[in-house]
Amino acid sequence: MLWQVDPTSSTALHVQVAACVRREMASGRLAKGDRLPSAKEVAAVLDVNLHTVLRAYQSLRDEGLIDLRRGRGAVVSTSDPGGDARLRTLVAELVAAARLVGATPADLTRLIESEFQR
Questions:
Q1: Which residues, in sequence order, are bridge partners of residue 27?
Q2: 71 or 61, which is more confident?
Q3: Chain-centroid distance, C-alpha 112
Q4: What value does the mean pLDDT take over residues 33-45?
Q5: Angle, to 10 degrees, between the axis of helix 50-62 and the axis of helix 13-27?
Q6: Is domain 13-117 classified as CATH 1.10.10.10?
């Protein structure tokens, strides 16, 4: 597991953890049916609170990317997570970068729309 979080980032830790999983899915390192590490294990490795990881996993479940089952843990549920998972990760990274430079949501929207028109 090569997941990393930046505790100094303005992006919430649970969002960063979820982005790590999405990146793994988009790259093909996690496929349908693969079991994710336990929340307890991830929390220990990343040195974050267990509830942070559980919140990330719940978010991924709500997106339909993983299944959470008692006794079975977190399992990748979709066979083609690449597109949506990758876009969500890129958007999270873009928003974090925009915050660092002081851009507003309106600034970001304008820039994205401008890029689509090119």
A1: none
A2: 61
A3: 21
A4: 94
A5: 50
A6: yes
